[in-house]
Amino acid sequence: QVQLVESGGGSVQAGGSLKLSCAASGLTFDGISMSWFRQDPGKEREGVSCISPSGFRTYYADSVNGRFTIFRDTAKNTLFLQMNSLKTEDTAVYYCAAGGCMDFERVRYWGQGTQVTVSS
Questions:
Q1: Hey, how many other C-beta atoms are within 10 angstroms of the C-beta on 13?
Q2: Could you tell me which of 10, 41, 86, 111 has the fewest CB atoms within 10 Å of its CB?
């Protein structure tokens, strides 16, 4: 049974930082791309970032490029998202996803989400 469990969300002021984690189990972690998505109420879920199975290639949405960093620890089967210079518009529920690389239709597994709230 595949499980993706996010942690690290919370409330922070604009300009601050948060680091999200996603602990994966039940899958071959180093054989699948991993992504972060986010969703604000009333909006579609959007891809934020993706990392290749090897970790050598990363992709970012324009809105977070240069502020967020995705990385993975294969030994610990854990995905991370370091978020710096946070803005109020980054407020959303953040989801960890396996497979699909920021392509919603191709995601195979989802985490339960973790709330990130950025205040001005």
A1: 10
A2: 41
The span from the CA of 100 to the CA of 23, in Å, is 18
- Identify the bridge partners of residue 68 per DSSP, sorted by sequence position: 83
pLDDT confidence bin for 42, thresholds 50/70/90:
confident
Look-up: residue for tokens 């680091």?
19
Structural contact between residues 109 and 29, judged by C-beta atoms closer than 8 angstroms: no
Count of CB atoms situated within 10 Å of the CB of 71 = 14
Give per-residue pLDDT as tens, 47-102.
999 999 999 999 999 999 999 999 999 999 999 999 999 999 999 999 999 998 98
